[in-house]
Specification:
CATH topology of the largest domain: Rossmann fold
Largest sheet: 5 strands, parallel
CATH architecture of the largest domain: 3-Layer(aba) Sandwich
Strand order of the largest sheet: 2-1-3-4-5
Radius of gyration: 17 Å
Structural class: alpha/beta
Helix content: 40-55%
């Protein structure tokens, strides 16, 4: 893990013991992450020190049966860098959170090492794939072509045809941060299928190989 200092986090979870445990993990990590705000209510991410925190760690169930997908969407659309930390371990929920702009999805069965890694990478605007998420992203590991969502494909094609992520965001009505998040997820999916694509040129080559875009479209 690259050395980073001065990072801050907001922890949103309806269980005080969980919040305290996460805060202890973050403080003891390398690098340590200071908890700027901790609450059972998402308002903590929009007020006080929570407004400027580098990363938001969000539980999906905040005292009710309905997952906080709307709150997740509002945070990511505002450009917040978000890690979901949830009891739910089903692939559909994880992929929905990524589609809405979360940079990582971890289950509470995963411990301090994975949560700290996800938080540090999210603070830098990068996606992180823990073990529980690897299967959901990889899908059928025998296939060489990753399964991109309709939104990911749309973002990818627009990016190839645009000069900047800001322009893509304006075209699609999303923030440049959300554009970047989708591109990070696409890179992770290609990596999981054994076809690394770390640069825009490499992604373009993969997309042409997979028939997502033709030379005439560029």
């Amino acid at each position: 893990m690259a050395e980073v200092t001065g990072l801050t986090a907001v922890i949103i979870d309806d269980h005080p013991a969980v919040r305290a445990g996460i805060a202890q993990w973050l403080a003891a990590g390398t690098p340590p992450i200071r908890v700027a705000a901790s609450s059972e209510n998402v308002r903590a991410a929009w007020t006080g020190e929570g407004v400027d925190a580098d990363v938001v760690i969000l539980d999906l169930h905040l005292g009710g049966p309905v997952p906080a997908m709307g709150e997740l969407r509002r945070l990511t659309e505002a450009g917040r860098r978000l890690v979901v930390y949830s009891m739910r371990a089903d692939d559909d929920t994880a992929l929905q959170c990524l589609e809405l702009g979360a940079l990582s999805y971890l289950t509470k069965a995963e411990g301090a090492e994975h949560l700290l890694e996800a938080a540090v990478m999210a603070a830098a605007g990068r996606a992180y794939t823990p073990p529980s998420l690897a299967g959901a992203l990889a899908g059928d590991r025998s296939a060489t072509r990753p399964s991109l969502s309709a939104r990911e494909t749309e973002v990818l094609i627009e990016w190839f045809q645009s000069e900047s992520k800001a322009f893509v965001g304006r075209r699609l009505g999303i923030s440049p941060h959300t554009v970047n998040t989708h591109l990070e997820h696409i890179r992770v999916k290609y990596a999981m299928s054994g076809r690394q694509a770390p640069t825009k040129a490499a992604l373009l080559a993969r997309a042409i190989q997979d028939g997502l875009i033709g030379l005439d479209d560029l």
